[in-house]
Structures are given as C-alpha cells and as structure tokens.
Specification:
The chain has 207 residues and is α/β, with parallel strands linked by helices. It has 4 helices and 12 strands. Helix content is 17%, strand content 26%.
Length: 207
C-alpha cells in the first residue's frame, strides 16, 4: 500500500491494485497549500480509479478537476451524496456522514477504504465524529487533519481508534503559521512513533 500526499489535506492511495484520490486536488487557500502543477498534471494524465471529496470547500475540492475527471472517464465523482458503499476490484469504499469541525451547515462525509488494509480518511470531520466509525473495521492507517493532534484531549480520541499508523495532513504552511499550530501539534505528538506528517509530493509505503 502506498499513500502519497497530493494536496493540503488530500492523498492518493494505491491499495490492492486500485487507486483512490481523496480531497486530492485543490487550489492554494492561504495558509494552506494547493496541489503543485506537476502533481495536478500527473493526476490528470493518468486518472485514478476513484476520485472522492469529503466536502466542497476549496481547500479540499477542485471543480475543474472534478469536471474533467467525469468528462474523460465517464465515472462519477464521489462525495457527500455518493452511495453508502461501492466496490472497486478487491477494495470496498464506504462513505459515512460526519460533521465538519465547528460547522453544522456543511455536507460532509468521511471515508473507510477496506481491502488488504483498512484506511479511515476523516477529511474535516470533528474528532468527536470518530465514534461514528466504531462499527467499521479497525483502521490500519488513519488519515486526519491537524486538529486531531492539536490538544491532548483530541489526541486521546485519535489514539483510541487503535490505528497502527496515523498520517496528519491539513497543516498550514510553516512560513505562514500565525497561530503556532505546528508547535502545538509537535508538542502533542512528541515521542509518538506511529505518526507521519508527509510533505506534499511525498509517498509513504506500508507493508
């Protein structure tokens, strides 16, 4: 299994021969970084098998990419209104309705991808929403925004999932971190060897 960070909060997952792009193309929305041009071109030349967005905020969703994907592949973009469960090859893909952090007026889903490994992708869901996935298979990999490691309380909920590996995304650009979020996160996860914070373009390989 390979997981490549492609955007602010987005990743490209390769699992059991299926490629899945989650929140994987977006424009820059300061202080959050967008998808670099070379990665955008790569994802447009060789489209993933599944493209999905947790919600339609512009730091997670790119309408032009979504439209081109649908036009060129004749496949639907998956998101808040997608079917509850679909299958692609040996991989199942489940969308679970979850509440956006601090918002009740945003349609939002989190995704559970199950094959030889199980991945939970939370998008911008509140850490409290992890309980909605308790009936899902235990995650081998949990992909979450920085808020899940911003405070000791949120981190306890994150660790309680039992995930073997936790990937943190959605951190602001280090040079434009006016609220000191990086420092808070690094303090919370100090000494935790299960955590990975990949740079955009970096690929993490799991056996």
């Amino acid at each position: 299994m390979k997981i490549k960070r492609t955007a602010n909060a987005g990743v490209l997952i390769e699992l059991d021969g299926t490629t899945v792009l989650l929140d994987g193309v977006c424009d820059e929305l300061s202080p959050y970084l967008g998808t670099p041009g070379d990665i955008r071109a790569e994802l447009s030349t060789d489209f993933p098998d599944i493209v999905a967005f947790t919600h339609m905020h512009t730091d997670h969703y790119d309408k032009l990419y979504a439209d081109n994907y649908t036009k060129d592949t004749l496949r639907s973009i998956l998101g808040p209104e997608c079917p509850a469960l679909i299958h692609a090859g040996n991989t199942s893909f489940n969308a679970v309705a979850t509440r956006h952090i601090g918002r009740t007026d945003v349609m939002h889903v989190s995704f559970v991808i199950t094959g030889s490994k199980c991945i939970w992708f939370m998008g911008d869901a509140s850490p409290l929403e992890l309980q909605k996935l308790e009936n899902q298979p235990k995650p081998d990999v949990l992909i979450v925004p920085y808020a899940y490691a911003l405070t000791p309380s949120a981190w306890r909920k994150t660790r309680a999932t039992g995930a073997e590996k936790i990937i943190l995304v959605h951190l602001p650009c280090c040079k434009n971190d006016t609220y000191g979020l990086w420092n808070s996160v690094e303090t919370t996860i100090q000494g935790e060897d299960c955590v990975c914070i990949p740079e955009i373009g970096q690929t993490v390989i799991f056996n």
